[in-house]
Design brief:
506 residues; mainly alpha
Amino acid sequence: MTLGILLTCAAFAIAGPEGSPIVVGSKKFTESVILGEIAAQLARLSDATAVHQREFGGTRILFGALQRGEIDIYPEYTGTITQEILADEPLESRADLSEALSRRGIRMTSALGFNNTYAIGVRPATADTLGLSTISDLRGHPRLRLGFTNEFMERGDGWPALRQRYRLPQTARGLDHDLALRALAEGSIDATDLYSTDADIAYYGFRVLEDDLGHFPRYDAVFLYRAELAERVPNVVEALRGLAGTTDEGRMIEMNRRVKIEGESEAAVAATFLGEVLGRDVVAPIEETFVQRQLRLLGEHLYMVVISLALAIVVSVPAGIAGAKRPRLGQVILAAVGIIQTIPALALLVLLIPVPWPREAGRPDILGVGTETAIAALFLYSLLPIVRNTHAGLAGIDPAIQETAEAIGLSSRAKLLRVELPLASRTILAGIKTAAVINVGFATLAAFISAGGYGQPILTGLRLDRLDLILEGAVPAALLALLTQAFFELVERGVVPKGLRLRPVG
């Protein structure tokens, strides 16, 4: 098998650097990132150009992106496919599973060799004190505080089904996976869901409760890939298939430990693994320096903020003017942008990702996952402060000034451009400044849909429990917000007449 992978990597040099790159995605937990990095490096060893979109999102986001062609490959688990992605289909065998995926233009490799099943974990002290050894034992302790991964709270094989199967009396709250692990270790919660290959189980000494009713299926690790890759880059597909059976549970736990506990990079761990499997030296990609990374993150962050703010200004200022000139229309406009502002930020990002529809339907993809969706969400969040301030600035102009402008014979257009907008300029700029500062902060959430920016190191820092990475994203984002505010203060001094700057903004 090893020789087969090695020969495949050396042959079929079809996908060169000049072709479209293969995009590998991964979920927001360490093991998925490692497996995604393995796939990306293996593609490069097969003479293809590949990029790895790390921490791309959850199951639904990744599978939808795969169907839409935004990514080409990502690691998944058979239990997740049958219980979550294709839960509505009767799948009795692996052949049924492969057929169901094929109808969606997706192929699946054979299992990599390990089963990363769900498990419920507790602290040893809790298990010993309450006599907990199975999930059924939780039934006798209704006061236990349960905190589960946000995705687990909604999955078909997650908390709702688990609670029903075991008739558990507790309620549970949703948490980020890595935050839930820390909360369990610190005693903030009493039980959480674990992945059986989590390095944290041994690190924290968690006690895994036996799934005595057999609720959780097998979660064999596989790679899902787009069917068209077999024609576009057959060498990569063959190399990917060659990974079947190369990784047992112990090996995966060790790779997770090296990243999560020892602090090695996923790229280095993936290169070591491929070197062992292929029987050759594999050099990990050269990582960015701190300065290079900061410049890239700044560029990504500014791109989202500037584009979304510019679009919002183009739309919001005319909307605010129209609302001020026509009060009834103004009420409708203010209500509409106000409703948009009440939508939670993460929910808005997800709502803007279109539901994946079949390719043969002939419908266009609108946004998808990535920068465009983030810009659209930032644009929508910028509307309210600019529209409201434009409307307030114009509506608050002294009627006597309006009458004077009309008395000297100014047309409606001239009155707006020469009198009303200059008088309202300070208020309008205040709204733009507010929108810009909000956008800088909100843009950090764009990392949840793989749009980059300063949210990326924050997300990685949360996953790896590394304060330095969290600060690497949080501190520059905060500084950028302060610089943005200072920039608009300077703009106000240059644009707004001094006499108007002395007036308080209404």
